[in-house]
């Protein structure tokens, strides 16, 4: 099914009133109410069921704009009253994004012609699309690659004389640059799947641990990667020391690192090396699952105790366990001075079945709201694109993974562009955030219910965004309360809605 996102006309609004000089914001909030009675509110919807119909919605809606509503007097009562306190700020958002893996870049570059590729890039990163603002790029090969490699595969090249990102230049670097051309403010994260094989005890990319004598060489390797990408016009905002450090496999590049390994790597080698090179790239620990949050807690604690806490900016999380994201809040409470990012969320047959049920939609909607309500500054999903066989990959064909989009690839060769693209649920559901919540926004306080999910944000321009998910099968009335104004809306069962408005509460 082909679905077209309606383009949004950006209307610049002037504020109705300036703050009185010198008056405390808390006093203003207590003394007055929201300006601009009748403030218009944009309404956007995605539904889970293609057969669902309500209020003229005869087919499934995917990030579809409905008629605006307006704030009015806060009267009457409903079961779900969501009060927005825009002055109670929580974490500042870096944004929402995806990974242009080797597989994704190859498909974009070789299986789409220039016109189709430009269309896809606009829909992913452009202002008329969903405006993704983050990328997470593998440092060398990941599991979704044509081949396993690093940037320093010459054995015992301790001075890294043969270091090169040449393997990335034919199609990975160009695709990242095209994303940056659509959105120059994209922040790029980067993660290592493995150090070069010769730096490890096992002398293999797939599994094993870094040799103690090679920690400085590994730090230099990461430094050279950051510098090489910067020389290509791709600034690296942050690195994670190791993707999923508690897991090693013989199937694809991986490397085991204990908490103490990362304490030493960050505090004694990577941090000082980056500092001495004048790099301001953030260094992030962990990059693994919720339930193991004591790992980053120990790393950060030990670095602080050693007087080296300034070298670590925070921790990163994935969702491949039974945790619900509240573990990120536990870590935030332990270290409120360190940031938290969600850097990889994969979707496939295990959590996004394509059998006509609501469960995949439900899983994603719940997760995206839970991630942001639990102090994460980001949501980054995994492969931007995979083909219809869930590749190219070092794993078996027809594995359980799915990309944000599917690009048809009939023969796995660099032949003619095929120009067939399917946008998956994660594209639309992440778009309910990324299209409206811009980098630099803050999550703000809103009350929530177990059977009516929501999260709220305030953008740098003062606009407010509330994302609501109704996980129930039946339609429900909700009320959004803001200052002394409110509006009510009937939200269909199993649907996500984004509400956006301007105006001020003084």
Short description, anyone?
The protein has 506 residues and is of the alpha/beta class. The chain has helices at 25-31, 102-110, 114-125, 172-182, 215-231, 259-276, 294-305, 326-334, 359-373, 425-434; strands at residues 40-47, 64-70, 72-73, 80-92, 95-99, 134-139, 187-192, 238-240, 282-289, 314-318, 339-345, 347-348, 378-383, 385-386, 401-402, 405-407, 421-423, 442-446, 453-458, 464-470, 476-482, 485-491, 495-501. 24% of the residues lie in helices and 25% in strands.
Molecular structure report:
This protein starts with 24 loop residues before the first helix and ends in a 5-residue tail after the last strand. The longest helix is centred in the middle third of the chain and has 18 residues, at 259-276. By secondary structure, it is of the alpha/beta class. The chain has helices at residues 25-31, 102-110, 114-125, 172-182, 215-231, 259-276, 294-305, 326-334, 359-373, 425-434, and strands at 40-47, 64-70, 72-73, 80-92, 95-99, 134-139, 187-192, 238-240, 282-289, 314-318, 339-345, 347-348, 378-383, 385-386, 401-402, 405-407, 421-423, 442-446, 453-458, 464-470, 476-482, 485-491, 495-501. It has a 10-stranded mixed beta sheet with strand order 2-1-23-20-19-18-4-21-22-3, with helices on one face. It has an 8-stranded parallel barrel with strand order 5-6-7-8-9-10-11-13, surrounded by 6 helices. Strands 14-16-17 form a 3-stranded mixed beta sheet. The chain is built from 10 helices and 23 strands.
